[in-house]
Amino acid sequence: MSEQRKVVLATRNKGKVKEFNKLFAQLGWEGISLDEFEGVPEVVEDGDTFEANAVKKAREISTYLGMPAVGDDSGLEVDALGGRPGVYSARYAGEGATDEANWRKLLGELADVPAEKRTARFRCVLALVEPGRDPIIAAGFCEGVIAEEPRGTNGFGYDPVFYLPQQGKSMAELSPEEKNQISHRAMAMQNLLSALKSNS
Ligand SMILES: O=P(O)(O)OP(=O)(O)OP(=O)(O)OC[C@H]1O[C@@H](n2cnc3c(O)ncnc32)[C@H](O)[C@@H]1O
Ligand SMILES: [Mg+2]
Question: In which residues is Mg(2+) bound (predicted)?
């Protein structure tokens, strides 16, 4: 996979697409958005794990288009909530919830939780599927703390309420380049690359 590589991004999330475009460019890969194709079926995310959903996204899209595809299933694990919302992060405040509704619900649930108990991590599992081959899977995470209030306007999802003590900023206050150096998605991409190298 070292040559110029066209890989379909098996996601409907525009924030993820932007991040992947930059991460892929660093590898000389070309990420192709699902918007380029018509009639692509919705993937039903009914797995209980990030891995199951990431593989399902990549496999269904790769099979449908006959091209390599990367699926990303990701979410937020909050320690004070026993790891919730986890794989249900996208629908935490209900099916089709907005990003803001999700993080507002989270701040509400953590209203009485003191600062030292607000630890959390973003997790990302990536699956690369080439037609007719077994998936290659890689994971990454990023540790932080759930803030009391939102800060910043970059990024997407839970970024405004995910505070990074080392940076002294929320994830939504980082530039896209800074986020791509430390994020769960960036770590998973690095691990995917290593897995590909040891596979070939
Ligand atoms: O399934 P696809 O089409 O890829 O798009 P999605 O937005 O539904 O993605 P997921 O099912 O993987 O759900 C991920 C959830 O975790 C959140 N999330 C994932 N990565 C994030 C990041 O880098 N920053 C903030 N929130 C993130 C995101 O907002 C969703 O609520
Ligand atoms: Mg989803």
Answer: 73
